[in-house]
Amino acid sequence: MNLKKLATLFAATALFATPALAGEHAHGAAAGEHAHGDAAGAKLSKSDQAKARTVEITVTKAGFEPAEVRAKAGEPLKLVVTRKTEKTCATEIVMKSEGVNVPLPLDKPQTVFVKPAKPGTIRYACGMDMIAGKIVVE
């Protein structure tokens, strides 16, 4: 790969990782917490956040663990995502359908709220869309 192509790739990658372009962050959220809306893009209410089921997701050399999360339509989820390795491209979690793009600093849990609106599959992945997992909604 020549230097010009590498610079273009680097610039594109940096664009996706830019927090200002990464989506809506809830005002008043605690440091490291990001509240994101359901498929319609609305922010989760404090009531939904309070009753959300917590799911721990870890990023390891193998990828997102667990790689599959099960949920019911309308069930609010609190995903607590912690990157445990530097040897990964999963330095953020992205859910395009939910408008989520949250940086994952090493060893610092990040909270993402989602409320799947309907049955189906919600894909979560790294910013380069190479390492992925899914939320299976019943």
Automatic annotation (TrEMBL):
- Compositional bias, Low complexity, is annotated for 27-42
Q: Which controlled-vocabulary keywords does the entry list?
A: Signal
* Taxonomy, superkingdom: Bacteria
- Any Pfam family the entry gives: Cupredoxin_1
Segments forming domain EfeO-type cupredoxin-like:
45-137
Q: Which residues form the signal peptide?
A: 1-22
Q: Where is this region: Disordered?
A: 27-48
| Protein name listed in UniProt | EfeO-type cupredoxin-like domain-containing protein
